[in-house]
């Protein structure tokens, strides 16, 4: 008596349902694996996507690792996967290094034009600086901008139309007001308005 394993593919679950082996008088039907295409983990079990010899790609199925008898193909797939993973990591490292090594901010030797915006998302106040004769903008630490071009920083804050107070937000048109004020740069690189007179 031979045991025959029957696989039923349920497309709704994209999974393989394996019913209990059924006794039969015929020899077990064997399928040959041509290639392992992919790997996944389902319910804590490793499954491989198999390309069957003599069958179309539509007949590829996910099979649990314990049902497979092709250790050489599994080893070849795992080796190929490790190699491609290392290659991808190396390419990403090269890309990151080349991006980081590119000069930014004042190191590019460009003349600042204006500040487009500001952020302190990284924990340090940074200005998005637009440069003259250049279409690219860079995030530059406020401490550098405050020292190298304080007039641009003052202009940025003067043209900002929203001023924050403790109680409300006020919308001001600064072109109508004649305001003179003095500024200072704090140790953290922030520009502080010390006094304002109308």
Automatic annotation (TrEMBL):
The keyword Transcription applies. One of its GO terms (cellular component) is nucleus. It is found in: Nucleus. CDD domains: CD_HP1_like. PROSITE patterns: CHROMO_1, CHROMO_2. Residues 31-89, 110-168 form the Chromo domain. Signal peptide: none annotated. Keywords: Chromatin regulator, Nucleus, Repeat, Transcription, Transcription regulation. GO terms for molecular function: chromatin binding. This is Heterochromatin protein 1. It comes from Sitophilus oryzae.
